[in-house]
């Protein structure tokens, strides 16, 4: 089948492209001009230059395409100009989905995020039906993903968009080239630059299983339905402890109260804004998100798609190995 993958120069998208190629699909990838394409090295893919904000380029990229995986997203917890997140994540998704309808694409997987879902406020995992609203979304990234998913739901209901929605939790593993905020944390922990932690938790998923979940959703998912693609719920303390054990050094033992970190986050963001620097390691929105444990259940994907959960320790080991090789 002829497949187009957006985001294949990035983390999850590159692994999705690899798995599609492995099963015999013909794969095209949408890439911005001048983008880092090292994640595509050695892959027999057709690279189509284009931009989610350029409708003409999207029409050309979708010509002859039967299936679409829209994995691309602007994943930043801080941006000097937050409008960029909405332009890429919301308007870019709208334009791509409308172009796919016009091109007659038969099947679509849209990569959303657990960021759009509600949280229970306890250690009880949330699921696809845990209530959430735009007002619950902390920060521009989460708001942009919430609005983008809403665009997909509307197009499914109103225009018959043949899209299945997947909501990855916290993918980690190889090919996190940018890296993502979680990847930066793992990279810095490997370099022993994280001496302390806050009381929070994440659902840690191996990127290979998350990518496999995309293919399962493409093959067997129900149009318009959400599927959480997750792994194991782990506290941040446990994650950092696992990294330390793999690397052979002591785990951080100091738990910091959030009020002590907020001034650091504010100063870091101000400095990044003034200097046009990279996303700060510590952000105000990240701290606000960490007040709740972000635990999720993948039971729907397991039961309806045949999705497989992999232990968090395996995902962490794969991520550590990849970052150590690139150090």
How are the SSEs ordered, and which strands pair?
Elements: E1 2-6, H1 11-22, E2 26-31, E3 46-49, H2 55-61, E4 67-70, H3 83-103, E5 107-111, H4 139-159, E6 163-168, E7 170-172, H5 181-190, E8 196-197, E9 201-206, H6 207-220, E10 226-229, E11 232-235, H7 236-247, E12 254-255, H8 258-275, H9 284-289, H10 299-305, H11 312-326
Parallel strand pairs: 1-2, 1-4, 2-3, 4-5, 5-6, 6-10, 7-9, 8-12
Antiparallel strand pairs: 9-11
Helix pairs in contact: 1-6, 3-4, 5-11, 7-11
Q: At the fourth CATH level, what is the homologous superfamily of the domain at 2-178 and 203-231 and 296-307?
A: NAD(P)-binding Rossmann-like Domain
Please give the alpha-carbon distance between the first and last residues: 38 Å
Structural class: alpha/beta
Averaging pLDDT over every residue, what do you get?
A: 93
Count the E strands.
12
CATH class of the domain at 2-178 and 203-231 and 296-307: Alpha Beta
Q: Please report which band the strand proportion falls in: under 5%, 5-15%, 15-25%, 25-35%, 35-45% or over 45%.
A: 15-25%
Q: What does the radius of gyration come to? A: 19 Å
CATH architecture of the domain at 2-178 and 203-231 and 296-307, by name, is 3-Layer(aba) Sandwich
Anisotropy-based shape: globular
Query: What name is given to the CATH topology of the domain at 2-178 and 203-231 and 296-307?
Result: Rossmann fold
Number of helices: 11
Oligomer: single chain
Strands side by side in the biggest sheet: 3-2-1-4-5-6-10
What summary fits the major beta sheet?
7 strands, parallel
Order of helices and strands: EHEEHEHEHEEHEEHEEHEHHHH
């Amino acid at each position: 089948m002829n497949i187009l993958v957006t985001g294949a120069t990035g983390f999850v998208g590159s692994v999705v492209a690899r798995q599609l190629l492995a099963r015999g699909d013909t794969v095209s990838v949408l890439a911005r001009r001048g983008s880092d394409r090292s994640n595509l090295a050695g892959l027999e893919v057709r690279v189509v230059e284009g931009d989610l904000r350029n409708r003409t380029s999207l029409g050309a990229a979708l010509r002859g395409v039967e299936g679409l995986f829209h994995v691309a997203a602007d994943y930043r917890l801080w941006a000097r100009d937050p409008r960029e997140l909405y332009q890429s994540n919301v308007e870019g998704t709208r334009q791509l989905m409308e172009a796919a309808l016009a091109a007659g694409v038969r099947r679509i997987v849209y990569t959303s995020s657990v960021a759009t879902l509600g949280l229970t406020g306890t250690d009880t995992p949330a699921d696809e039906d845990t209530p959430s609203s735009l007002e619950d979304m902390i920060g521009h990234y989460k708001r942009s993903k919430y609005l983008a998913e809403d665009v997909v739901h509307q197009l499914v209901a109103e225009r018959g968009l043949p899209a299945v929605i997947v909501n990855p939790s916290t993918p980690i593993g190889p090919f996190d080239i940018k890296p993502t905020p979680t990847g930066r944390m793992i990279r810095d922990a490997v370099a022993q630059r994280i001496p302390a932690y806050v009381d929070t938790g994440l659902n840690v998923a191996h990127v290979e299983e998350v990518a496999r979940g995309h293919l399962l959703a493409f093959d067997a998912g129900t149009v318009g339905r959400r599927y959480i693609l997750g792994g194991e719920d782990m506290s941040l303390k446990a994650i950092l402890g696992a990294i330390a054990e793999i690397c052979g050094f002591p785990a951080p033992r100091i738990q910091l109260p959030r009020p002590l970190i907020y001034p650091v986050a504010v100063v870091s963001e101000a400095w990044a804004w003034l200097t046009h620097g990279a996303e700060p390691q510590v952000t105000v929105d990240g701290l606000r998100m960490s007040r709740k444990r972000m635990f999720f259940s993948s039971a729907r994907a397991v039961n309806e798609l045949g999705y497989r959960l992999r232990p968090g320790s395996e995902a962490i080991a794969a991520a550590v190995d990849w970052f150590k090789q690139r150090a």
